Structure formats: C-alpha cells, structure tokens
C-alpha cells in the first residue's frame, strides 16, 4: 500500500526570504533553490538539499501539497521532483487531480459550508466594518470560500484579533494569523477532509503530515504521524499532540528536516 505524505507548503516546506531564518554565519548558509516567481520576482525557496529529498520522496510516496493558497497561487510554485498527481488548495476547498479541480469534491464542500456555518458575505461585512485602515493593507476573498486580510503586523491590536476570533467562533468560522496575513476560514473547510479523500482514492494505509499553523492542526491530528517546525502559530502556542513531533529547527532548515523525516518514515514503512 502506498504511503501518503500531505504537507503544508508556506513556512513548512517553502520559505519567503523574510522567513528563511538564516541565523548562521553567511559562509555557512545553505545553498537555496527558488521555487516560486511572482511578477518577475523570486518569492519562495527551499534548500538544495531539501530539493533532493523532495525528489526522492516523490518517487517513494504519494506526495500531496496541502495548502491554504488559492489554485492560482499554488500553480506558480515549481517544486522539484515528480509532478504530484493530487494537490489540495484553498484549505481543502479544491482537490486537484492532475492539476484540474475535482468538481464532485468541490460541490460536496460547498454543500457542507452552506449547512454548517455563516455565509462568507456576513464575515466580509464584519471585517470591512471593524478593520482599521491604520493597520489594514489589503482585504481579499479566496476562491469564494474564505477571507483574509494583509496587515501591518506590528500595528495589529492583539485584542482585535481575540475579539474577531470569538465573534467568528459563534458563526462556525475560525481565525488564524500567519505572518502578515489574517485568515477567516469556515470550520468545515479543512485540509484533513481532503487528505482523507486522497487516502481513500489511493488506498494509502499510512498518512504522514507536516504544518506550522493553526489551520494545519486538523491535518496533523488526522495523520498517523506528523511534524511541526520550531516556528509558527503551533510552536508559539506550544501545541503538542500524540504522534506529532515538535522539531527544534526554525526557518528553511526546518523544511529540510521535515523532508528527512518524511523520507525515513516512508522507507521504514516499505515492505
């Protein structure tokens, strides 16, 4: 039976220049590979060692990129290794099969959202009414599924985030602050549900996962084994769970370590 490896991307496997955390002397910094270009500018990286590990992993397991990014944002990433047959975008709202949205899956997601949580328009209106232009830079809707704000993090009041989270909780939504982005996401919109669907289709009996944010907690809990880096929302909260390893590495070297762990666990599971 194949091993399924479902991993978050941003700040888990790939890193912007601001998130690399290259704290070592310059002469000892790892060589980097750019895997995303946006508007003619390099945007995301992993180490060259991580690129080799990811290539080996793609040959050994069913590797499934699992991201909150929209499909358009995901498709500008050029990961090394075999092209994944499955990818999960929009936090589980879209299941891509050979790069194309699975319409049946998407329809099931929409039906569940309509049944279980407040509509997106209500959340958008609340964000527009309560966000302060002093720290708000952009307000966006992703795939008509969830909303996010781009903020000046140092100016964002902590109390406002807590009040928003409490307001959203009562309406079936959750709030996650990742870097300069604050996400408001319906609770039924989960990465774990889409990963279970991929496991069903592939016949995988072992699922491995990694992620750094609160939106990845359900993914990690649904996996047989999981890893979180030493940075991000989960690390900041001291989040721990059975079968989840909290790694000490931070930044791009955490991505390298996660891939080593994936590969070792995949090879150990081989008959």
Q: What characterizes the major β-sheet?
A: 5 strands, parallel
The rounded distance between the terminal residues' Cα atoms is 9 Å
pLDDT average, as an integer? 96
Radius of gyration from CA coordinates:
18 Å
Unreliable stretches (pLDDT < 50, length at least 5) are none
Shape: globular
Structural class: alpha/beta
Q: What order do the helices and strands follow?
A: EEEHEHEEEHHEEHEEHEHEHEH
Percentage of β-strand residues: 25-35%
The number of strands is 14
DSSP helical segment count: 9
What is the percent of helical residues? 25-40%
Strand order of the largest sheet: 4-1-12-13-14
Describe the structure.
- The chain is built from nine helices and 14 strands.
- Helix 1 runs parallel beside helix 9.
- The chain has helices at residues 48-60, 71-75, 103-116, 120-130, 158-169, 191-202, 217-222, 233-236, 252-269, and strands spanning 3-7, 32-38, 41-47, 62-65, 86-89, 94-97, 100-101, 136-142, 146-151, 173-178, 181-186, 206-210, 225-228, 244-246.
- With 271 residues, it is of the alpha/beta class.
Q: What brief labels describe this structure?
A:
271 residues, alpha/beta, five-stranded parallel sheet, 26% strand
Short description:
The chain has 271 residues and is α/β, with parallel strands linked by helices.
Task: Chart the SSEs and their pairings.
Blueprint (H helix, E strand, L loop, with lengths): L2 E5 L24 E7 L2 E7 H13 L1 E4 L5 H5 L10 E4 L4 E4 L2 E2 L1 H14 L3 H11 L5 E7 L3 E6 L6 H12 L3 E6 L2 E6 L4 H12 L3 E5 L6 H6 L2 E4 L4 H4 L7 E3 L5 H18 L2
Parallel strand pairs: 1-4, 1-12, 12-13, 13-14
Antiparallel strand pairs: 2-3, 5-6, 6-7, 8-9, 9-11, 10-11
